[in-house]
What we know:
Layout: H1 8-16, H2 20-54, E1 60-61, E2 65-68, E3 74-81, E4 85-93, E5 97-106, E6 111-115, E7 121-129
Amino acid sequence: MEPYGLGQAATDLIASCATPEDNIVRTRSRAAAVTASLVLAGGGLLGMAAPASAAPSALSCSTPSYLVGSGGHHGASIRCTGSSFTGYIDCYKAGYGTYRHFGNRAAAGGTSTTWCDLNAKVVAAGATPS
Length: 130
């Protein structure tokens, strides 16, 4: 008679099962294999992402529009496509020299506007990807 009234098939199945120690070793091996696979896959993904981030986006900008504001402020605005960007201008002020101001960060297709200090003139204008 089979133990616990299970039937011969169930008894054979129970007898064929590995010991708990075998199951622990098998589980650890599977966990190690899964971990190794994830590490390799993660490394592969990082390897694939690096070239995409290493290549800068092509930034195409219009000619800057020079502006005169209230009280004698001078500035410039620029529109670019290709990636987000930040406009900048180089300003010159007598007794101080040349310095750079950065405008607002704008999405591709947007406009960035930058202003010099009072009584300073715009010497150059451009944009940089951001």
